[in-house]
């Protein structure tokens, strides 16, 4: 049933994201044709990128809010699925759109730099990309994969946090102030996240007084392999941290949906 939920969410949102992707490609082409100055064109392209990110977040918010807390939510909640499956479906589809948006944005940037003649040919960077890939050894390849996973899990964490803030705003007791409560909830959750990290760091420094030696080790003349190992360890911890928060935020959403849900 989870697969059917994912397909339903994709069908209900693909038109909005198709419009975003078409706007990205057309936007960078039009900008490169109208503005001949690289600086002006770059500024406008940056503005387009920021707009795309904002629109994407709004669409992902609508994906969750409309299908759970509006009249459509009545239909969603009558399906033979659990609240957990609904939340997981939203996170899967949100992640998919985030990844596709990133890919299309990179493609748009590539078209942009070619259109304003920063590169001579649309295929000019391919040999350099192949050369960079050929230079990757095992450690650096693992680092690259971990970096991608850090970015991906961080994006999913932020979406789960947004879903939880939206759910808090729909608590029965906060009906009249849901917009303000939703915004405040997002800021409070972000603050709590920073606070928890600070407390963990303080705890680690108490039980391991020599933790500062790790920073000195990073700046000392150790081998590249050791640097990669340390950095990969830090990235792995970041991924685990993001996964734990994704689970915590998602469980919060599920609890509200099961116990405190108030539909429009």
The total count of helices amounts to 9
Distance between the termini: 26 Å
- Low-confidence spans: none
Form type: globular
| Strand residues, percent | under 5%
The overall average pLDDT, rounded, is 76
Main structural class: mainly alpha
Helix content: over 70%
Total number of distinct structural domains? 2
Entry keywords:
0% strand; 264 residues; 2 domains; globular
How does the SSE layout of this entry go?
Elements: H1 2-34, H2 38-69, H3 71-78, H4 83-115, H5 126-135, H6 138-169, H7 178-207, H8 212-219, H9 224-259
Helix pairs in contact: 1-2, 1-4, 2-3, 2-4, 2-6, 4-6, 4-9, 6-7, 6-9
Description of the molecule:
- The protein is globular and about 60 Å long.
- It has helices spanning 2-34, 38-69, 71-78, 83-115, 126-135, 138-169, 178-207, 212-219, 224-259.
- The chain contains 9 helices and no strands.
- It has 2 domains: 1-129; 136-264, no CATH class.
């Amino acid at each position: 049933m989870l697969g059917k939920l994912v397909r339903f969410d994709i069908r209900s949102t693909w038109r909005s994201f198709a419009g975003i992707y078409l706007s990205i490609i057309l936007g960078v082409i039009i900008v490169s044709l109208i503005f001949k100055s690289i600086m002006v064109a770059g500024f406008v392209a940056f503005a387009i990128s920021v707009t795309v990110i904002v629109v994407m977040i709004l669409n992902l918010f609508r994906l969750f809010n409309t299908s759970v807390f509006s009249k459509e939510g009545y239909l969603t909640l009558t399906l033979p699925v659990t609240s957990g499956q609904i939340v997981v479906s939203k996170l899967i589809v949100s992640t998919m759109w985030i990844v596709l948006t990133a890919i299309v944005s990179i493609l748009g940037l590539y078209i942009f730099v070619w259109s304003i003649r920063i590169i001579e040919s649309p295929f000019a960077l391919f040999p350099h990309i192949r050369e960079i890939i050929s230079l990757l050894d095992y450690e650096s390849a693992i680092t690259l994969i971990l970096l991608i996973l850090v970015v991906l899990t961080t994006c999913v964490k932020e979406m789960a946090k947004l879903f939880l803030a939206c759910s808090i705003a729909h608590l029965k007791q906060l009906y009249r102030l849901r917009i303000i409560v939703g915004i405040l909830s997002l800021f409070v959750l972000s603050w709590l996240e920073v606070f928890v990290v600070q407390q963990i760091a303080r705890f680690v420094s108490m039980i391991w007084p020599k933790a500062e030696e790790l920073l000195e080790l990073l700046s000392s003349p150790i081998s590249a392999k050791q640097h990669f190992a340390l950095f990969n360890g830090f990235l792995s911890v970041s991924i685990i941290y993001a996964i734990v928060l994704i689970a915590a935020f998602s469980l919060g959403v599920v609890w509200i949906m099961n116990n405190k849900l108030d539909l429009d």
